[in-house]
Amino acid sequence: SRPAAGTTMLLGKRVVITSGGTREPLDPVRFLGNRSSGKQGVALARAAAAAGAEVELVAAHMDVAPPEGVKTTRVETALQLRTATLEASARADVVIMAAAVADFRPAEAAETKIKKRDDAADPVITLVRNPDILQEIVQVRRDSGTGPALIVGFAAETGDSSSDVLGYARQKLARKGCDLLVLNQVGRDLVFGQDQTAISILDNSGADPQVATGSKDTVARTIIERVAAELVS
Ligand code: CTP
Ligand code: CA
């Protein structure tokens, strides 16, 4: 019988997908984290594998299990995610940065548990910037003239008084230098941990974004179809 439609779209392509939220340690028992569930990254990994790709998932903290049969590297911090992703990207055709990477980490992680003390001031957490992994992958490709044919970023935006979500997304695509940017509108009840989602896919042509709504699996299939289309165009 004929294989189901789409199962060979990415046959022979190596696709690296990052997923979940990084955790930045404060001490051995505490961390700074974020609300990423990892569901979108896992759905993308499943969709890419179903399209015939050889998938490598670099997974930070997730509320869900990685898909069966997908090579998965577990990481905790942004720096660990950076190392694993740069390594995997060197041999990838496509990199999809769906992970929620902490922008900052505590300048120092205490080696022992931070204790409350009545005879000392309450602690103040000093943060330092994490490297921008997506920008680095783009930079490596630019400098070496080789690397992934397609680099996809994600943006979770709420919009604010100075710009709307699409405005921020366009600025981000330009700043990051990636090929596609998938925009998620986030708010208190939107996207994080939810099964229904709405996305817009922006490219550098200035064309209107491609919009998709539905479950994270449906949206993931749309993103993977777009990735496959970009690879042949
Ligand atoms: N990203 C990354 N490394 C970081 C931060 C973000 O690779 N240190 C990636 C994310 O995985 C995502 C894209 O960059 O694909 C956009 O992340 P986002 O947090 O929306 O962008 P930032 O540049 O961090 O801007 P903001 O100030 O809006 O958080
Ligand atoms: Ca950020």
Overview of the molecule:
With 233 residues, this protein is of the alpha/beta class. Helices cover 28% and strands 26% of the residues. The protein is built from 5 helices and 12 strands. The protein has helices at 39-50, 78-89, 133-144, 165-176, 216-232; strands spanning 14-19, 24-27, 30-32, 54-59, 71-74, 94-97, 104-106, 127-129, 150-157, 180-185, 196-203, 210-215. Strands 5-4-1-6-9-10-11-12 form an 8-stranded mixed beta sheet, sandwiched between helices. A two-stranded antiparallel ribbon has the order 2-3. A two-stranded antiparallel ribbon has the order 7-8. Helix 1 (39-50) packs across helix 5. The model has no long low-confidence stretch (mean pLDDT 93). Cytidine-5'-triphosphate binds at residues 78, 97, 99, 101, 103, 130, 132-134, 153-156, 172. The site of cytidine-5'-triphosphate (CTP) has 14 residues, from helix 3 and strand 9.
